[in-house]
Amino acid sequence: MNRIKPKKHLGQHFLISKNVIEKIVDEIDISQEDIIVEIGPGTGALTEEILLRNPKILYAVEIDTTVYPVLEEKFSKYSNFKLIKSDFFDVNLYELISDKEKIKLVGNLPYNVSSLMIIDCGFKLDILEFCVFMIQKEVAEKLIAKPKTKDYTFLSVFIQTFFDVKYIMSVPARFFNPPPKVTSAVVKLTPKQNIVINNVKKYKNFVSHLFQNRRKMIKSKIEEGMLNKAGVSPNLRAEELSVEDFIRIFEVVENDDR
């Protein structure tokens, strides 16, 4: 552990609680058929617990060059461990699996880019079995937020459109080295069945647009006729709309564009 110094610019906070690590891996529910991708293994604490439960393969994606020799030495005896020396955003997950295979995506996400990584999962729904992430508690609260609350944002709507979100537990700062300034949380994101959105990028931009100037009524952004067709009151604000409202409005707008 003392061979590696956490780097602030990479948002690194290494999890050091064995109990929390075991609970996270319990949630992953590992079988010998599993293809697991871990984002940011760091010192390999979570990695080790995953490997002890013998998945088919564990790909560990790490950007920090200083931990490569440590990870390679620590897990050299595991033939099912593969270290990917890269930024996660540069990895093509589709190249790691065969046709019809799925990935369990896990990790203690770097706090400075956790929201971006979670949003990115919305573009990989067809290959994700589920995701189990450690993130800031304030981001986790946005993922489960309901309309008309302060935590209900673009992120809430976008993720809840595509995933069932389970808040697993809060994790105090003392369980990390160095302790972050915030409380953390573990969440599980499971892709929904029968998702009706085909163009994820267009939908992402659509939801983001409606949340700009969130205090404005949506009739200032969408024609009233379309809102009526979607069965949504033009006098509501984005923060008052349910996820189902967003989906219905988007479908009306999409059909109009065609």
UniProtKB/TrEMBL annotation:
InterPro entries membership: KsgA/Erm, rRNA_Ade_diMease-like_C, rRNA_Ade_Mease_Trfase_CS, rRNA_Ade_methylase_Trfase_N, rRNA_adenine_dimethylase, SAM-dependent_MTases_sf
GO MF annotation terms: 16S rRNA (adenine(1518)-N(6)/adenine(1519)-N(6))-dimethyltransferase activity; RNA binding
Highest rank taxon of the organism: Bacteria
The entry's keywords: Cytoplasm, Methyltransferase, RNA-binding, rRNA processing, S-adenosyl-L-methionine, Transferase
GO cellular component annotations of the record: cytosol
Binding positions (S-adenosyl-L-methionine): 13, 15, 40, 62, 87, 108
EC id: 2.1.1.182
Secretion signal, residue range per the UniProt entry: none
Enzyme class: transferase
Domain Ribosomal RNA adenine methylase transferase N-terminal residue range list: 20-193
Keyword rRNA processing: yes
Gene3D superfamilies: Ribosomal RNA adenine dimethylase-like, domain 2, Vaccinia Virus protein VP39
Localisation per UniProt entry: Cytoplasm
Family statement drawn from the similarity comment of this UniProt entry: Belongs to the class I-like SAM-binding methyltransferase superfamily. rRNA adenine N(6)-methyltransferase family. RsmA subfamily.
Record's function text: Specifically dimethylates two adjacent adenosines (A1518 and A1519) in the loop of a conserved hairpin near the 3'-end of 16S rRNA in the 30S particle. May play a critical role in biogenesis of 30S subunits.
Record protein name field: Ribosomal RNA small subunit methyltransferase A
Organism: Sulfurihydrogenibium yellowstonense SS-5
Native organism taxonomy: Bacteria, Pseudomonadati, Aquificota, Aquificia, Aquificales
Gene this protein is translated from: rsmA
